[in-house]
Amino acid sequence: MEGKKSRGYAWAISAGVNAALAAISAKLFSSQVIKYGLVIIFNVTMWGCYVNSLKALSSLQATVTNFAANFLSSGLAGFFLFEEALPFQWFAGALLIVIGVFILSKSSIERKASTD
Fold this sequence. Notes:
- By secondary structure, the chain is an all-alpha fold.
- It has five helices and no strands.
């Protein structure tokens, strides 16, 4: 069960990163054909990864992990690729999101359902 859950988190993180890559590709390329092509490819890949994460995780765990990965990778890409400023509040919020995902990953949703 633990291996299935860790694969679920890997799928959810991959979905978040692919969503960020879709946004990044829309900003990086000037050619409309390349831009829309990459956005479609990354979004289709993101949805495939997200659906696979839902097979191993609860919808809450998959969604929050996907969001966190998207938020962190988008913010870091903005910082490194587009030289956007990241204030202290962004890092504080990112830390709280990571802590929240960690708490959710340790939650025992399946065990609570079986004891009811």
